[in-house]
């Protein structure tokens, strides 16, 4: 048997093992599935799906160190494996590595959106990303609030000390000095109140929300009439209701939908600034 024939046979055996692994996984026999995928990897170590399948089994067992290891290997083999980026992101979050975990989830979301009209697992990835970015913002917000409070107290103490010295030097407490002191403290309070505004949750602007769901855009597309919709929602409308724009009632075909990159960037900028702090309905 020549080298080529041996490789072909190994590939066929590996595929059979993958199928066995899938069967075991469907029956929640994760240990047996891991063994099958491991044998497939031994035969054909350069097939990324074997690594992501095994990583999914490790995820079911909450063995996050092995999830991370298998996903990193899968990404080495295929940098566009959104399943690998997604599970790697989850594994990093388990280690409280928020910044890197968020990056991986964002990469998975971008790749998942390109996997089809609705994108495989896009909603699940979006929800995990939302929760992670909120946690990331919450930590940063707490730190900023603490720093602002300390700075405010230091400034107030400095003002009080200054006015005490002024009063002591003039050997009296003048009304205008007291009024000036009060005004400076009020101004100082307003400055710090303004500085804290970015850490206060706000309502999502209407232009960042789909006109059908009224929820913030995940994957916005724009129609020839200039109206933007959530991709999955408008596609569902076109399939089940009819091929027309639900607002303008003009004829509309799925091929006419174009990604609205401007709105997508605006949503990202809003979420980055406000830490995903708006009230999201997460299932």
From TrEMBL:
<dbReference type="InterPro" id="IPR003613">
    <property type="entry name" value="Ubox_domain"/>
</dbReference>
<dbReference type="Pfam" id="PF04564">
    <property type="entry name" value="U-box"/>
</dbReference>
<protein>
    <recommendedName>
        <fullName>E3 ubiquitin-protein ligase CHIP</fullName>
        <ecNumber>2.3.2.27</ecNumber>
    </recommendedName>
</protein>
<feature type="repeat" description="TPR">
    <location>
        <begin position="14"/>
        <end position="47"/>
    </location>
</feature>
<dbReference type="GO" id="GO:0071218">
    <property type="term" value="P:cellular response to misfolded protein"/>
</dbReference>
<dbReference type="GO" id="GO:0043161">
    <property type="term" value="P:proteasome-mediated ubiquitin-dependent protein catabolic process"/>
</dbReference>
<dbReference type="GO" id="GO:0005737">
    <property type="term" value="C:cytoplasm"/>
</dbReference>
<dbReference type="InterPro" id="IPR045202">
    <property type="entry name" value="CHIP_RING-Ubox"/>
</dbReference>
<dbReference type="GO" id="GO:0061630">
    <property type="term" value="F:ubiquitin protein ligase activity"/>
</dbReference>
<keyword id="KW-0833">Ubl conjugation pathway</keyword>
<dbReference type="GO" id="GO:0006515">
    <property type="term" value="P:protein quality control for misfolded or incompletely synthesized proteins"/>
</dbReference>
<dbReference type="Pfam" id="PF00515">
    <property type="entry name" value="TPR_1"/>
</dbReference>
<dbReference type="GO" id="GO:0045862">
    <property type="term" value="P:positive regulation of proteolysis"/>
</dbReference>
<dbReference type="InterPro" id="IPR019734">
    <property type="entry name" value="TPR_rpt"/>
</dbReference>
<feature type="domain" description="U-box">
    <location>
        <begin position="203"/>
        <end position="277"/>
    </location>
</feature>
<dbReference type="GO" id="GO:0000209">
    <property type="term" value="P:protein polyubiquitination"/>
</dbReference>
<keyword id="KW-0802">TPR repeat</keyword>
<keyword id="KW-0808">Transferase</keyword>
<dbReference type="Pfam" id="PF13181">
    <property type="entry name" value="TPR_8"/>
</dbReference>
<comment type="pathway">
    <text>Protein modification; protein ubiquitination.</text>
</comment>
<dbReference type="GO" id="GO:0051087">
    <property type="term" value="F:protein-folding chaperone binding"/>
</dbReference>
<dbReference type="InterPro" id="IPR011990">
    <property type="entry name" value="TPR-like_helical_dom_sf"/>
</dbReference>
<dbReference type="InterPro" id="IPR013083">
    <property type="entry name" value="Znf_RING/FYVE/PHD"/>
</dbReference>
<keyword id="KW-0677">Repeat</keyword>
